[in-house]
Amino acid sequence: MSVELDVFVGNTTIMDEEVYQLWLDGHTVNDAVKVRMEGGVLDECEASADVLLSDTMDQYRTFQMCERLLYSPAKLANQLLFQIPPHRQAMLIERYYAFDDVFVREVLGKKLSKGTKKDLDDVSAKTGVTLKSCRRQFDNFKRVFKVVEELKGPLVENIRQHFLLSDKLARDYAAIVFFANNRFETGKRKLQYLTFQDFAFCAGQLINNWTVGAVGENNMVEDMDVDLDKEFLQELKELKILITDKDLLDQHKSLVCTALRGKTKAFNEMEANFKNLSRGLVNIAAKLTNTKDVRDFFIDLVEKFIEPCRSDRWTAADMRIYLTHYHNSAHILDTFKHQVVWDRYMGVVKSCIFKMYHD
Amino acid sequence: MPGKLKAKIVAGRHLPVMDRASDLTDAFVEVKFGNTTFKTDVCPKSLNPQWNSEWFKFEVDDEDLQDEPLQITVLDHDTYSANDAIGKVYIDIDPLLCSEAASVISGWFPIYDTIHGIRGEINVLVKVDLFNDLNRFRQSSCGVKFFCTTSIPRCYRVAMVHGFVEELVVNEDPEYQWIDRIRTPRASNEARQRLISLMSGELQRKIGLKVLEMGGNAVVGYLQCFDLEGESGLVVRAIGTACTLDKLSSGAAASINTHMHPNTAPASNACNSPSKDGKEPVFTEDLPSSSGPPTPFRALPTTSSSPPPFSPSKPCSRQSSSSDTDLSLTPKTGMGSGGSAGKEAGPLKTLLRQQTQTALEQREFPFFTLTSFPPGFLVHVGGVVSARSVKLLDRIHNPDEPETRDAWWEEIRQEIKSHAKALGCHAVVGYSESTSICEEVCILSASGTAAILNPRYMRDGCLDIGSSDHRLFLSMCVCMFNVNCVFEEPSPPSCGFCHIPYDELNMPFPAQLTYCYHCRRQKVPDVLFTTIDLPPEAAVTGQGCLIQARLCRLKKKAQGEVNATAISNLLPFMEYELHTQLMNKLKLRSMNALFGLRIQISVGENMLLGLASATGVYLTALPAPGGIQIAGKTPGDLSNEHHILAIQKRINDTIAKNKELYQINPPELTEEAVGSPIPEPRQRSRLFRSHSESSDELSELDLSHGKKDAFVLEIDDTDAVEDIHSLLTDAPTPTGFYSCNTEIMPGIYNWTSGLQMFTSVRVFRLSNANLTNQGLNKIFTDLCENLLKSLYFKLRSMIPCCLCHLNFTVAVPEEELIQVAVTAVAMTFDKDQSQEKPGDRAMTKGGSENEEQLQFPLELCAESTSANNQPSAKIPAPSVDYGSFADRCSTWLELLRLKAHTIRRGSVKTISSSERCSPLPEGRSRSLRSTRSFGGSSVTVVKMTPLSFLPGTRIVKYLGIINMFFIRETTSLREEGGVSGFLHSFIAEVFAMVRAHVAALGGNAVVSYSMKECVFMENPNKNQAQCLINVSGDAVIFVRDTDQEATPAQMNTGQTCNSGTDGAT
């Protein structure tokens, strides 16, 4: 004796946000029922476990049916199958595309390929995010990636319009797409301390300053926000003069040291390390024409700059003041002609390092 | 060539990928009407094609316009192989044929495929140019408006109510044609959908013709059903109430003072006669009368229909006595005298008829499918009348012709009519018909509420016709009045309808009569059952609630006549038990009347299911119900006694709790009733009601004699144990929820605009174990209760809210499967105001009239003495009259009756507590509260509701009827999420298609929505399932009452007041 069929369909589709979250998190119906019971819904409504089970199954079914619409959220607004008030549609989409930082951290910069997808069970085991949820998140990344890949125009805006996401979420997706496209290495042990939000911030900087679209002349180039500006990368080589020209290097150092003297406890270390650090940063810039080195951009920043500073116990304020002067002083160097490129480079590197300089 | 249909295909979107290679589709469209087909160009490689076609023009007869749907097929062009169909859209163009409805159909329609469901959408424009100046073909009835709504549509007023219309068409079911063996399931499904669409169109056209002949211009309360008879055919039948409607000017809708003029005959004379003193109606015993229905069963086996009309009601020969009443009724005929045709139909009708010369006689059935009426229209309500008949489908001689089925229904309707007469009523309101089919056995059922309608309205109606007759008519009426010594006084609207219509001397069934607790002038029964909505002007104490009786009865598997006989034999018992359950539950809630009663009996191979749903209320005019007493057979046994006491206590507690819950606190409630000692053992033979009745009479105004026996349940009786069990296991509705199966909840008047219509379906599989009736009952009851609980849980975010129009449908799709489907709407209301009481209205009136009526009571008393004996004496008598069949009938009738006595003996209620007709707080509020508005949405939001209105809004236009039939089939059940996934998406698709059609008509809501059929079949082993769904409703445009006043419900009440007043004075 059993209930063979049990459905509930409302003219306005009923969705419980709590159950939606459980579904998104990849819980099975039974787990979800357990969680809900512990949450105390039953007490509020004098219902029994059966009722809860039936409700949960119904909702899961509804979500499954909605899922294919969520693949292209714009459809949700003009499809006829489910009558869902606009604010609920927004909620459905936003939550569907939301992701776990721990998860995204694992796949950030990886190729969004089948191979990566196969490894998701490891990721799931490692992060504690259910496999189902991992897959959903991964598929979301991939879907967004595929769609924007072929679109012209600004990346964030495209994502927001195509997937009807909030600005914040759209920016995060832009970061993910950007990382996946450029295959930035983020998985090395030395980078483990960095959160997704750190990377997302850096991605934002890179997108806004280093890509083709950043220049702003023609707004309708394909991949304008995804690919780095090749010309710019080429020009970065010119910065080498800062370290190859002995005079220039010394001059730069003295300018910086003059400005810093007495303003920080770490002055001595700064002075001692100046050349090394400067070489590190400039070399990173000079090598960016190589795809391989682009991928290692973050690891290089950490190895060549952040780690040495950290071992010298610079505080965040030290870092700030040092880099500010390091950047600005170059403007005063008479023989240094590449101010524009320098600004474009240092502006980004500075803010990335500020963001990345933490424990 | 009376019309030109024009269609334009604009665009498509979200089409499915039909070509795997390119992930695209080369779509084109075929537009077909009748035998003409047009095609658009192919729009290559696009999932969002833009065709922007020319206007395709079809020149057609208006007859075809009515019958045929416009058929749009979307296909994928394939150079090498046959083109693949993506899906279809059927558009019913009927709404375009009526000038007052929609003028254009334009919008996105889901493209539907019976195998794959919705596959994308198509944008279509459709227009019709009708050449009105041409002579109308008699075959068409363009322009007649149809409404599913069972009350007068909100933006119309009734100039005249012409009466009952019905029609039935039959065809071979494509699913059973030989060709079905060689065609694809898709082709078969589409053939069926198209056929039904055609048949519905034809049916509507034919009904329209009848309406035109009657001189009307609309059908209200249109109820169309399908009978899938299988081999013997596919039947589409419909009933409705023909009216002449006038559109209210402009926004005046709110002030609608509709008068219904039932010119229909029924009302007329009948009214007078009954007027005898309006007394009370019926009730309890409806049962018996209902039992009537079963009667036919006898006949049934002989499929042929010897219409033995049964007698049940007749058995109550008293009716004959009532014949007096009848007489008065009959006079109509007499009166109609003028009218040859008068027959039973109300004289008025006849008169009218004569006048208008429309001369159709078929008004033989004074039935109204309406469930709510303009104030003052309904004079008295007699009680529920119902009839059932079991037929064998394989015995139909000419399966392709409608005659046999026509005869069946005719028989049933006759029976209903005679039941109504037996109750002293000349009309039946809230009338509906249904069937249940299992293999070759078919149970036909009809039910309604016997009533007396107001002649005054008729008179108004007559105005339209010609004054002279009218006068004549009036004078006749007056005579009659005199004769009867009855004066039709305006009874107070708040209680008048409760007064019994039948003659106290010739009560059709045993009942306890008391003086109306409201006006004190006329008699009322102790309990009142009806199939209509609670009249808005009725005085009610506290809130109402949903009451259900559920029953399962096993039967042996059998075939043919044996099977039919077995079913027939079970029916009366089922009706009886359902009735008993209803009574018990009603008392347990301390209520005294049921509205919206709907009893469904569904037949399966090895069982019968019975489900009765109604909304219980405490009518202020009726006496307070007595408590329920438990009695043990062996009083000596201590442990037993203890047990009984425990149960008794639980019952008493429950009653007390319910009173509080539903805020039922009529003036003096009577501990006695509740806690009174168990009445003395009653003897079976005792005539029932003798005492209590007489005491009533004597007491006249003083009704308080505390100790009437309360309702007694004997616990030794297994049935009783079961009853008690089910009584106590009904879970109370959770806090914040109310539920009812009527349009609105008695006692709640301040609706806000929150609205959620839903459909829920459950199928339960019984294990193979040998089940007993009790076991089955328990399962069935639990199934219903759990379903309700789930609904409450789902809708908890809407609290405080009320589930209105809870419509349960049960079926036994296969052996061991029980299917329950519910459609209802949850509506929010403002809690703070729910308890306000209006108080004043009506009550005052009641008081003032009191004195004039004093004389009547006297008379009544006199009569009543004699009355007591008669019924009892007569009961057995009737049985004699019938032939062998009848014998059977009478036997069970008697049996029922006996049983009834034992059980209800005492049912009398009683606690007559109050002597004053003090105005009780009515618990109704007329608050004017503007409602919040819904959030706006970018897509056209289409509201759906089974009610005839949307709270907080005004309906400004009716766009036409929506009547859609869909089939969905799958051969990949598992992949679609199993049976639940399959049905879930199908129902969602049906909703979507309804909404799309409404939106295309320019509407933003469907009112009076109902899912009339949901036939689900599965074969999990083959991974297959099929489902058929039929839905209907009225497409409307509503506007929000931003202003001040009034949600429709409130309008209603307000309106009531006004017109009620007018009427009364």
From TrEMBL, chain A:
InterPro entries: FIBP. GO terms for molecular function: fibroblast growth factor binding. It holds the Pfam family FIBP. It comes from the Eukaryota. One of its GO terms (biological process) is platelet aggregation. One of its GO terms (cellular component) is nucleus. This is Fibroblast growth factor (acidic) intracellular binding protein a. It comes from Myripristis murdjan. The gene is FIBP.
Automatic annotation (TrEMBL), chain B:
Its main location: membrane. Residues 1-109 form the C2 domain. GO terms for molecular function: calcium ion binding; calcium-dependent phospholipid binding. Keywords: Calcium, Cell membrane, Cell projection, Cytoplasm, Cytoplasmic vesicle, Lipid-binding, Membrane, Metal-binding, Protein transport, Transport. GO terms for biological process: insulin receptor signaling pathway; intracellular protein transmembrane transport; positive regulation of D-glucose transmembrane transport; positive regulation of protein targeting to membrane; positive regulation of vesicle fusion; protein localization to plasma membrane. The keyword Magnesium does not apply. Residues 259-275 have a biased composition (Polar residues). Residues 313-330 have a biased composition (Low complexity). InterPro entries: C2_C2CD5, C2_dom, C2_domain_sf, C2CD5, C2CD5_C, C2CD5_YbjQ-like_dom, C2CD5_YbjQ-rel_dom, UPF0145_dom_sf. GO terms for cellular component: cell cortex; cytoplasmic vesicle membrane; plasma membrane; ruffle. Residues 259-345, 668-693 are annotated as: Disordered. CDD domains: C2_KIAA0528-like (cd08688). It is found in: Cell membrane; Cell projection, Ruffle; Cytoplasm, Cell cortex; Cytoplasmic vesicle membrane. It comes from the Eukaryota. PANTHER family: C2 DOMAIN-CONTAINING PROTEIN 5. This is C2 domain-containing protein 5. It comes from Myripristis murdjan (pinecone soldierfish). The lineage of its organism: Eukaryota, Metazoa, Chordata, Craniata, Vertebrata.
